[in-house]
Amino acid sequence: MSGVLTIAGSGVLVIAEAGVNHNGDEVLAHRLIDSAVLAGADIVKFQTFRTENLAVTDAPKAEYQLGTTDGGQSQFAMLKALELPADAYSRLMNHCGRAGIEFASTPFDEESADALAALGMRRFKLSSGEVTNLPLLAHVARFGRPVILSTGMSDLEEVAAAVACLREAGCADLTLLHCLTDYPAPLAETNLRAIVTLREAFGVPVGYSDHTEGLTVSLAAVALGATVIEKHFTLDRALPGPDHKASLEPEELAALVAGCRDVAAALGDGRKVCAPSEEKNRTIVRRSLTTVRDIPLGAVIERDMLMARRPATGLPPGSLDLVVGRRAARPIPAGTVLTGDMLA
User: Fold this and answer.
1) Average pLDDT estimate for 95-118
2) Distance between CA atoms of 22 and 129, rounded to whole angstroms?
3) Mean pLDDT, the chain, whole residue set
4) Separation of alpha carbons 190 and 91, rounded Å
5) In angstroms, rounded to a whole number, what is the distance separating the alpha carbons of residues 127 and 312?
6) How far apart are CA 171 and CA 148, in angstroms?
7) Contact (Cβ atoms closer than 8 angstroms) between residue 159 and residue 202
8) Pick from 65, 72, 66, 73: which is nearest to 19 by CA?
9) Which of 186, 207, 211 is closest to 260 using CA atoms?
């Protein structure tokens, strides 16, 4: 199994991040799967956690969460309301199987990771918050499945420690995602060139987990060689909850998927050659040496007798110095495309 294999073979894996945008409602989670399928995403991804294993009861909320949820509610209470029942994930996975989209869910604790592994989940996606959680990284790596790790809030040294931990624990198929962990992420801090830095530093495929508004930055990431694009989506940005406001709506998700496919297809293999579609145009738009006046038999050909004009069915303009000084092997009328047999 490959961490960067795409269902559509487009060269980029698109993860539709449902996350907790189901608001703890399994029916809404199933509707999110259907929306991701209609958009053409490769993977629809949720989050699996037991709140007691994730946060202490008085853990503060992030600033963006204070702005999108009840400010008097604790992070613990918010997370508890966003939990799905443990048995919901098998039903979500089965739905994905029937619908033809890959199921994934990010585990936030070892118990959740074990449950997802037992379901036969194909690959693990770990969040930026776990980069320094080496015990959880090692635990997931031991399943021997592909791992995708987001790297938001991290410096290169921290990413190096996480990569070493995963590799030592048995992860042989690793993809890193550059990420800016803020919602919405400011463009001026996005630093897409870090995609190249991570790829060169660790020799692994690198993608991008996008928290910016709109589609532009994701498409730019694909142009920089991102092999994975992950983006939050929702059925309605007006729904209550911490992540809806910074998520794409269904039509936008479909546009993102289509855009990623187009950009990936346009990247090509990097070899500079005449493409098959161009072949038919070479003789039409390139030029040949042509005569601008009549040239008698035996006349010495001079520079001012010639002009480079379309089509490219005769001697190329680059042969000008080889033609000047030769004699005409026959009378050559003005406007003739010059060919080698016309020269003595």
Assistant:
1) 98
2) 21
3) 94
4) 36
5) 57
6) 10
7) yes
8) 65
9) 207
pLDDT tens string 74-99: 889 889 999 999 999 999 999 999 99
Cα separation, 80 vs 74, in Å, equals: 10
Residue with the two structure tokens 């958009």: 39
Residue 84 gets which letter from DSSP? Answer: P
The residue whose two tokens read 């190249």 is 196
Question: In whole angstroms, what is the distance from residue 120 CA to residue 335 CA?
Answer: 73
What residue type is assigned to position 301 of the chain?
A: I
pTM: 0.88
The CA distances from residue 276 to 268, 273, 279, 283, 332, in Å, are 13, 9, 5, 14, 35
Maximum CA pair distance of the chain?
A: 101
Please state, in angstroms and rounded to a whole number, the distance separating the CA atoms of residues 157 and 152.
Answer: 13
Residue 319 half-sphere exposure, CB side, CA atoms within 13 Å? 14
Query: With contact defined as beta carbons under 8 Å apart, do 291 and 336 qualify?
Result: yes
Phi then psi dihedrals of residue 200, to 5 deg: -70, -35
Q: What one-character-per-residue DSSP string does 179-212 give?
A: E--SSSPPGGG--TTHHHHHHHHH-S-EEEEE-S
Token reading at 14: 């698109």
- E strand or H helix at 128: none
Burial readout 117-153 (b: 16 or more C-beta within 10 A, e: otherwise): bebebebbbbbbebbebbebbbbbbebebbbbbbbbe
The β-bridge partners of 332 are 295
